[in-house]
Design a protein that fits this description.
- By secondary structure, the protein is an alpha+beta fold.
- The chain has one domain (3-77).
- The chain is 39% helix and 15% strand.
- The chain has helices spanning 6-13, 22-31, 65-77, and strands at 3-5, 36-39, 42-46.
- It has a three-stranded antiparallel beta sheet.
- A hairpin with a 2-residue loop joins β2 and β3.
- The longest helix has 13 residues, at 65-77.
- The chain is globular, with a radius of gyration of 13 Å.
């Protein structure tokens, strides 16, 4: 599943004046609302494919629902 830089995703996924602000998107990444990873001070959105820019909401990493919930909380907390 590809990652796309937050600013590029914002340009492609939202149209014109309907785009949310970057601080709002970054806040959503930080609190886990958007499936994102922070790499070298930049946020990247996890998308289905390069042609489908819909963010992936339910990531199953281990196959165990309890473990997946824990992993998602840890990833959402991020590293500062």
């Amino acid at each position: 599943m590809p990652l796309i830089r937050l600013d590029k995703w914002r340009e492609k996924y939202f149209i014109g004046n309907e785009r949310p602000s970057m601080p709002d998107l970054q806040r959503n990444c930080k609190n886990g609302t958007l499936p994102a990873q922070k790499i070298c001070k930049r946020w990247y959105i996890l998308v289905s494919s390069e042609n489908d820019l819909t963010p992936i909401q339910n990531r199953s990493i281990t196959g165990n629902p309890a473990a997946d919930a824990l992993v998602n909380r840890v990833l959402a907390a991020g590293v500062q």
